[in-house]
Each structure stands twice: as C-alpha cells, then as structure tokens.
Amino acid sequence: MWQLHRQSYQRFCRTAQQCTLKHGASIKDLSIRATGFRGRFGAAVVAVKRNKKRVEGRIGDVVLQPHDQLLLDTGLWQAAGVHFGR
C-alpha cells in the first residue's frame, strides 16, 4: 500500500509573478473583472500597486491604469515545472 501511495503523490507549489502594465496595453482603463483576466491570461490578480501604494478595495473593481504593478497567482505547478493550468 505504501508503494501505491508514494507513486501517486505529486508535490505542488503555488507560484506568483509580478508584472507592470504598459502604457499601450489593451486592458488599460478596464476593471480587472471586465478584462476576464483569469480566463484570458491564466492567472489571478492578487494585488495591485499604483504609485508605490497598494490599491485598496475589491480586486475585481480596480480599473487598470498604465504602470500599475500586478501581483499574479499563476496557479499550481508541479515541482518539475509542469503547468496544470486552470
């Protein structure tokens, strides 16, 4: 029984990325919810920083502006680096 369990076990870890919205980005001036960010980019926005300060409020209601810094949860990845996607 131990062997079967050991073979089916997979180690996962969450990964985070930070990105900056460019001036000409197609999603600027839209709320995060309106962009369909998770479906479009395969990542969830965890936080937004603007002018070196965290943007307060509900993440989905934040309207994106050029130079916003986004903290993204890019999902579950196997330790070997294989993406399991959402």
Name its key features.
86 residues, Alpha-Beta Plaits, single chain, disordered C terminus, 3 helices, four-stranded antiparallel β-sheet
Structure description:
The chain has 86 residues and is of the alpha+beta class. The chain has one domain: Regulator of K+ conductance, C-terminal domain (Alpha-Beta Plaits, 2-Layer Sandwich). It is globular, with a radius of gyration of 17 Å. The two termini are 31 Å apart. The chain has a four-stranded antiparallel beta sheet with strand order 1-4-2-3. The chain is 19% helix and 33% strand.
Task: Briefly say what this structure is.
The chain has about 90 residues and is an alpha+beta fold.
Q: Tell me the fraction of residues in β-strands, as a range.
A: 25-35%
What is the fold-level CATH name, i.e. the topology?
Alpha-Beta Plaits
Radius of gyration: 17 Å
CATH class: Alpha Beta
For the secondary structure, the number of strands is: 4
Number of domains: 1
Average pLDDT for all residues: 79
The share of residues in helices is 10-25%
Low-confidence stretches: 1-10, 78-86
The order of strands across the largest sheet is 1-4-2-3
> What about the largest sheet?
4 strands, antiparallel
CATH superfamily: Regulator of K+ conductance, C-terminal domain
- The tally of helices reads 3
**Structural class of the helices, strands and pairings?**
alpha+beta
End-to-end CA span: 31 Å
Shape: globular
Question: Secondary-structure element sequence?
Answer: HEHHEEE
So, CATH architecture? 2-Layer Sandwich
Secondary-structure map:
Blueprint: H1 2-8, E1 12-20, H2 32-35, H3 37-41, E2 44-50, E3 53-54, E4 69-78
Antiparallel strand pairs: 1-4, 2-3, 2-4
